Amino acid sequence: MARGKYHFDLFNASIVAEIDLSKLGDALDTFLGEGGNDDLLNQIIENWWNQKVYPEIARSMDEKKINASSALKQSFVPGEIVKSPTSINTVLLAEDYWEFVEYGRKPTRNGHIEGTPYLWQSIKEWIAYKGIKPTNPNMSYESLAKAIARKIHRRGTKATHFLSDAFTESLQMELVNELNARLGDLIFAVEVKS
Predict the structure, then answer these.
(1) How far apart are the two ends of the chain, measured CA to CA in Å?
(2) Residue 186 located in a structural domain
(3) In total, how many domains does the chain have?
(4) Looking at the domain assignment, is residue 118 inside a domain?
(5) In this structure, what are the phi and psi dihedrals at residue 114, rounded to the nearest 5 degrees?
(6) Contact present, 182 and 44 (Cβ < 8 Å)
(7) What's 29's DSSP letter?
(8) Does any domain span residue 1?
(9) How does residue 58 score in pLDDT terms, banded at 50, 70 and 90?
(10) For the segment 84-109, what is each residue's pLDDT rounded down to a tens digit?
(11) Same domain (yes/no): 151, 68
(12) What pTM does this model have?
C-alpha cells in the first residue's frame, strides 16, 4: 500500500479502509495512544460510514440497478476499528457475495465450496424473489436456476464497480477533514494544558 494517502483494500466479506493520519500532526500520536479518546474516534468513524459512505453505496447500487432483494444493500454495517499511532483501519461488513457484484465473476467450472449453497440454489432463491417464471411451462424453478448457473459458469458476470464508484477520494477526505476538525481541537486543547 502507498503511504501518505487514503487506502481502501477489499477482502472476504468485509471492506477495509486504512486512513493515514500523518497529515494530522505529531500530537495525534498522543491522542490516539494508550488511554486516547476511543469513544469519540469510534463515533466519528461510525457516523462517517452511516451518514456519508452508506448513502453513496446505496445511490450507486440504485443507479446501476443492483437491488435484486435488497439483501446486499441492507447488509452494510460498520465493523471493527483498529488504531495505531499513524493509521486507523476500519471495516465495513457486507454479505459475502458483494465481491461478485463489485468485480464480476470469470467463467468457472462447476465447482462448489463445502458448506456453501450451490450457485443454482442461490439463483433459485433470487428468481423466486424477483418473481421470474420459466418461459417453458414444463420447466421447474430448479431447472431454470440450474440453466442460469450453467450460463454464469460458462460466461461469467460483468463487474459493476458499485462500491469503488461510490467510495470516492472526496468521500474519503471528508473523514480525514472531520477527524482533523474534531480531534484537532481536542489535540490543541491537550497541548495548551501541558
Answers:
(1) 36
(2) yes
(3) 2
(4) yes
(5) -55, 135
(6) yes
(7) H
(8) no
(9) very high
(10) 666 677 778 888 788 889 999 888 87
(11) no
(12) 0.69
What gap in Å lies between CA 90 and CA 94, rounded to an integer? 13
Residue 42 host element (H or E): helix 38-48
The radius of gyration of the chain from alpha carbons, rounded to an integer in Å, stands at 22
Cell of 22: 500523518
pLDDT digits (tens, 9 = 90+) for 109-142: 766 778 878 889 989 988 888 888 899 999 999 9
Cα separation, 81 vs 89, in Å, equals 6
Task: Report the distance separating Cα 74 and Cα 67, nearest Å.
Answer: 10
Q: What is the mean pLDDT of residues 144-155?
A: 92
Instruction: Mark whether 177 and 139 lie in a shared domain.
Output: no
CB atoms within 10 A of CB 68: 14
Is 67 in contact with 129 (CB distance < 8 Å)? no
Look over the chain and give the mean of its residue pLDDT values, rounded to a whole number. Answer: 75
- CA-CA distance, 80 to 166, in Å (whole number)? 21
pLDDT given for residue 185 in this prediction: 60
Q: How far is CA 170 from CA 8, 69, 158, 177, 183, in A?
A: 13, 30, 26, 10, 19
- Which structural domain range is residue 126 located in? 106-155
Closest CA to 90 of 9, 179, 184, 182: 9
Planar angle of CA 77, 79, 85, nearest 5 degrees: 140
